[in-house]
Design goal:
Blueprint: E1 2-10, E2 15-22, E3 37-40, H1 49-52, H2 54-67, E4 70-77, H3 78-95, E5 102-109, E6 117-121, H4 126-134, E7 141-146, H5 155-167, E8 176-181, H6 189-192, H7 200-212, H8 215-221, E9 223-229, H9 244-247, E10 256-260, H10 266-280, H11 303-314, H12 330-339, H13 345-359, H14 370-381, H15 384-396, H16 402-411, H17 413-422
Parallel strand pairs: 1-4, 4-5, 6-7, 6-9, 7-8, 9-10
Antiparallel strand pairs: 1-2, 2-3, 3-8
Helix pairs in contact: 2-7, 4-10, 11-13, 13-14, 16-17
Length: about 425
Amino acid sequence: MLKLKNIVFEDNGKKISYDYSVDQTIKKYFIEENFFYIKYNEDVGKTPDSIAVIPFLSNFLPIAWFAGFIIQIDEIDATFYEALKVIKSKFERDHNRELKGDLIVNKVIINKINGSKSVMLFSGGVDAFATYIRIFDKTPDLVTIHGADIEIKEIEEWNDLVGFIETEPLLNKNKKKYIETNLRDFYNFNVDLLLEDIGWWGKIQHGLALIGSIAPLSFINNYSTIYIASSYTDQIDINWGSTPDIDNEIKWANIQTIHDGYELKRQDKVDLISDFTNKNNQNLRLRVCYSELKEDFNCSHCEKCFRTIIGIILSGKDPNNFGFIVKKEFYLEIFDKLNSSSFSKGTKYFWWELMEKAKNTKEYFILEDKDYELPYLEKIKNGEIDLMFKRNITKTKKFNITKYKFVLRNKFPLLFKLYKKIR
């Protein structure tokens, strides 16, 4: 059993700390010195415990479900209590297994939040900007979370992101909300091993955890609707922790969640952003890169940067106007990197989208030299990248060591650091 003993508001009501005890049999999942907390840039101290418990449960309960232990709490919002039952059944279906963990509650409380305001989770990437544009007229508050994509210890990168959000002209009319939480640091690698193919954050945690983080803000700011941008589309079959099937079921009081843009391919979103900038005669910077090697707004050299840059070029726009630094030579770098790497099912799908877009594009944006660039764009159009992926699958199919490397890296972190230096 894991027992939540107390919910404590600190730092003038801006921080919520959770006092909980963990039985010896399940201690292996948690980092003892990293007790879970969540911090806001405003006072949320008037939030009732039945709603303040939501960020905690949104992160801990899925672990309990998959590991098979009990969580005991004092009180919970009635709507969220019922929603959790539905979400658990969705995970059981998606992962084809019975989840034996459960929740024991002393009191179920009916809450009501009177308001009509919208809020959205905002990272500054393609998905987020596409959703932002689709609900532009609602002037949603924007919530950005430190500890999700950017580690809490990465202060400089976080400050860069905040600076971007605060100074981007397009976002001037939106109120900005910032959250810091150790939602990826309170548990250890044993949680990842609850899944056969690891990937806890992406496949289980992040949808419920990110949305649940907004619960205290929703009470203080009288929100009625939460928007979260889709990562994937309904055209790809992949187990993912944030889909309409899950996110739209996440509710408390009279709050509803909308998983937005699931019917759109990633390239559809890039085209949407491109069209919006044309109609409004203004550029915007897309923040898609989390590379530790980047020195500019995006590194412009990683796979995620590559596919975003190509998407912008195929939409007829200059990627240098969207937060990238790109010269014609980057085409050679793309093919070198993709030919020597292996990628996930989702990543391969995004490149398939680009191939399909290229087939139906008559005018590409030319960076510098048409004669140099067109042959590379023709390679994308003709499926050369897809052939690379298939060759790489053949190379690595005999023995997939991803999970073994994951365990060794986490069990022996100092040795792994030494190995990286030697390599």
